[in-house]
Amino acid sequence: MFTTGSVATIPCREWPGTLPRRYNRPVDFPRALRELRTRRHLSQLDLALRAGTTQRHLSFIESRRSDPGRNMVVRLAEALELSLRERNELLLAAGYAPAYPESSLDDQALAPVRAAIDHILRGHLPYPALVVDGAGDLIAANTAFDLITEGAAAELVGPGRNIYRLALHPEGLAPRIRNLAEWARHILARLGHLEELHAELVGYVPELERCAGLLGFAVPLRLQSSYGELNLMTTVTTFATAVDVTLSELKLEAFLPADPATAGALTAAARAAASAEAGQAPGNM
């Protein structure tokens, strides 16, 4: 069900519901199709072959000489490798109803998903992990994530808050990130589809110098914490075969230690948190 990654300790009954995001206003279908094809550097023949049609038919569609059927729009969207949300938008532009549902996270149909994510989040301990939606808003995180967010302003932390803003805001993690320029470049590269957020975050970070060479096998997060400097790598997991828009946009992000010192610090922090929780249990009060 997953591809690669991790995330969340909010019990299922407390999972936040999500309202379906409104789709973009209706657009000109032939123009939208042509722009999507051009952006992917595909010729009419390339796209026609991928979609199982002819270049002539595709040319007629793009020039408004022919109206595509619903099935053809779906095939074109698949051939363009659009996200489920984008496929629904293309169908709407062509005058058809969306093909893919968009459920609320607290919908009963997604109960197995919530259980799976809870299991993964807990299983990733003592290392931090979280799950976000397509806009980067936090859905849930495990208890180890508290070490990442320590010292951040309360209004930047918690479910519904944007993790990219948390990472780069001057009252978020930014003052504690030792390699802020490198990490900011890594974050901003992921925000091409979120233009307003990208514009906001660019103003928070140091001027991004051109990289003189490779950064190594992966961009690390070097973060100061109460347990010393943490040197972390990240992995991202998605639901590879999702047919629900909400599910397809969930990303499970896991932090992994890049050195033994970080592994030890995370383990020590987890033990301290468990001891503190045990000390607050009713039988120990």
TrEMBL record:
Alphabetical list of SUPFAM superfamilies matching this protein? lambda repressor-like DNA-binding domains
The record's listing under Gene3D superfamilies reads: 3.30.450.180, lambda repressor-like DNA-binding domains
Which InterPro entries would you find in this protein's record?
Answer: Cro/C1-type_HTH (IPR001387), Lambda_DNA-bd_dom_sf (IPR010982), MLTR_LBD (IPR041413)
**One term of GO molecular function:** DNA binding
Q: Which residue numbers delimit the HTH cro/C1-type domain?
A: 33-87
Q: Which PROSITE patterns match?
A: HTH_CROC1
Q: Output the SMART domains linked to this UniProt entry.
A: HTH_XRE
Which PANTHER family does the annotation name?
Answer: BLL4672 PROTEIN-RELATED, BLL5781 PROTEIN
List the protein's name.
Helix-turn-helix domain protein
